[in-house]
Amino acid sequence: MSRQTMHEQWYDGQAQANAIECWLNCYLREFAMPRGEVDFDYRGQDRPARFDQGSGALIRIRFAQAGYRLMVRAQRGSRLGRCEYVGSPYLKSPGEPWRSADAATLIHFLLDRLADECGFNHELRVQCDNSIAVNARLLALAADARESGNAMLDAEQGMVWGHALHPTPKSREGIDIDQALACSPEARTEFPLYWFRIDPRLLQRHGADVTQVLAKLSGEGDLYPCHPWEVERVMANPVWQRARAQGLIEPLGPLGEALAPTSSVRTMYHPQADYFLKMSIHVRLTNCVRKNAWYELESAVALTDLLAGAWDDVRNRAAGFDVLLEPAATTLDFAAAGEGEGDEANVRELGESFGILYRNSFQTLVLERYRPQVAGALFTRDRLGNSVCRELVERYARHHGGGYSHAAETLFAAYAKCLLDGVWLAFFKHGIVLEPHLQNTLIGFNHDLPARVWIRDLEGTKLVAEQWPPERLQGLSERARQSVQYSRELGWNRVAYCALVNNLAEAMFHIAAGDSALEDRLWSVVGALAVHWQERFGRQPLLQGLVEGDCLPSKNNLRTRVFKRADRDSDYTALANPIRVWAAAEEAA
């Protein structure tokens, strides 16, 4: 066997192991746990012989269909049922012996168990195959790539595993795999955008004037870009072809400055640019095709202006908290090249392909002083499987003393306070529903301690309808108003899931590393923050309920995909709240 083939097999094995972990964790949380069909420390005799020895808890999952079972060993788990596994899962079907399963076999088995409820989802099966293949190739590319020395960019491009509780964390559906790899952040790549010379009358702008930004990146004026993945789609559009024949637009190809993709894949970074450029791509990443609908761009820019006073208030009262504003958006309007109602869809699609949102970037002094890094790159494993944040905690312990557990609590408390003070102020005082999940949160450090938090992606920000009636949203179109308004219940589910379950619970999982006592103390930090926040800013029943043990909402990514729902229609599973461990101890004291 050649050395190259051995490497390819190793990367494929790692990608398959990651897929198995993601699927098992999703299935546990969204189906097995709510239905009472899981034993987390199974000690019965109904098991494959290979499980008679070995360390770690044995997990058994039962199914509604009689005779089907799944068994796997976990080397560690969390209070929320998030696990890391040892070896392969084993599957049992009626009348058949236990058999070891690779990722494809496991996914087919679980989809088959769910088929009675929603039919067998062949589309998701194919997307999982794509995610595994992309992950394996990205691991190989990451092994040979060099870091840039820019801490922020290196973190953005270091998330080789993706969302830990998602069935397709690295899918790039809708693009050839080699094209996908050429523009993916995990390969630590950079590339120029694809530029067109345009008649200035095509340009449609919302918010700040960014023409000089585009001119700086392209090298001259009256040029406009799209993401390289969009070029083929754009040129196949008959309205674009007609516009070109009319002299309104001319393709020039890749040119100008090379930009680096960040962790969201489609958002581009250049160190000398004032903005990140959030490009539009008709490629499915995890749940969604990441195209830029004009009403979404409009709402993001409008919220930058509309919420200026609210952001000032939150910054002043929540030390270290900030948001990355999105003051501009552009696209191209091809209505003049259309030929009536039949071309409406083509004009709209072109507008989506050329849509760009401009997000404020970091000044050089901020990058140097705080070394901002995306939270998802810290609370995860590196490409070799090592905990990234553990090194951070150990370094703090070496420099400041007190041992690992003390350092862990100190760092976690500093981060959680920065995050939650601002997120809760935005929600409870201003009716702003942020989306502070791991990929939307950047952490800045001061002397190895989290000191700043920035939340990004105002496109995903919503407003509580009770606090933001239509008369307060006069600057938005009707479609944009519909896209930003949320009920208070949905808003709390989103905030609580993103901040507590997706973000802080994952941080605890990697910081505690299987130490359940330490994990409990970290949950107690969250409980204490909720109590202290109310002492400073006023009682909130939802926060008090959190302290007293109300369930935590966890977004159902697997259910969303299995039942073929739009991401906006995702529902939540209620998880047992570990904060009640702390609350009970407080009452006993």
Automatic annotation (TrEMBL):
<dbReference type="InterPro" id="IPR043032">
    <property type="entry name" value="PvsD/AcsD-like_thumb_helix"/>
</dbReference>
<comment type="similarity">
    <text>Belongs to the IucA/IucC family.</text>
</comment>
<dbReference type="InterPro" id="IPR043033">
    <property type="entry name" value="PvsD/AcsD-like_thumb_beta"/>
</dbReference>
<protein>
    <submittedName>
        <fullName>Iron transporter</fullName>
    </submittedName>
</protein>
<dbReference type="Pfam" id="PF04183">
    <property type="entry name" value="IucA_IucC"/>
</dbReference>
<dbReference type="Pfam" id="PF06276">
    <property type="entry name" value="FhuF"/>
</dbReference>
<dbReference type="InterPro" id="IPR022770">
    <property type="entry name" value="IucA/IucC-like_C"/>
</dbReference>
<feature type="domain" description="Aerobactin siderophore biosynthesis IucA/IucC-like C-terminal">
    <location>
        <begin position="411"/>
        <end position="569"/>
    </location>
</feature>
<feature type="domain" description="Aerobactin siderophore biosynthesis IucA/IucC N-terminal">
    <location>
        <begin position="152"/>
        <end position="379"/>
    </location>
</feature>
<dbReference type="InterPro" id="IPR007310">
    <property type="entry name" value="Aerobactin_biosyn_IucA/IucC_N"/>
</dbReference>
<dbReference type="InterPro" id="IPR037455">
    <property type="entry name" value="LucA/IucC-like"/>
</dbReference>
